[in-house]
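# step 3/5: fold
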Amino acid sequence: MKKNYGGRRQRKKLRVRRDRAEVMGVASIVLTTVASWLRVRQMITPRVGVREGLLYELASAQMGPPMLTDEQRNRSQVMIAGAESFAGRVRCDLNHAQQVQALALQLFDQLWPYHQLDYEARAILASAAVLHDCGWLINRKAHHRHGEYLIHNAKIPELSASEKNMIASLVRYHNKKSEPSSTHPVFATLNGEQRKTARLLAGMLRLAESLESDHRKSISKINLEGGPRDVRIHVEMRDASRLNLAGIARKARLLEQELKMHLTFQRVVVIEKKRVA
């Protein structure tokens, strides 16, 4: 008995190969069922296959941050460890801080072709992400300024004075309560290149913190596509939680300004497979 895979004429019209036509009907039923179950209103359909995905990974490896030397890696680890130690002393919410750190570093790494900052900038961003809410020790109100004060005046042996001031500045500007300004004493201690870097890193931290603003760790990861002037950020969610895209877009303006690009955001629900005991 001859199987019918939609008809040769239909396949030709839709430009679908025979092997794809065999599974498209079943796949559409599965996707429709899953979408109905999760109440998903939109789905993103990739226009690439396995081959294109492999090429993308190879290209990403070549265009990502350069490999660190052992000395650079050790220095980064020391800086971040010093920040984490201080975060523990001032009773930061480390679960939330580590999620913000993970998202901030994903932004740093995936945007590297556009900013090309070095390992020290990455370690400063990671440290500031851990400490961004440390000002809560004094008062939740104006905690961005309290955090700046604590870090600027703290004794953190693993950090130089310049590194502390960079981290303090990022903490000051992490939540859009104030913008980078030379009238702020700590930011004023930075030279021109450091101020440029601080504004860019503050933009990344501000966006990462807004993605984790509900403190639920509902985002598994983010993926960037497009460029060089229009970049879409796919926000992969672990569940069907809502995402305040308008609020996130507002928090992204500093980063857009520094990179001279436009960012848009798309929520993607990822279905995680459950392990069978």
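# step 4/5: annotate
The longest helix spans residues 18-38.
# step 5/5: archive (pending)
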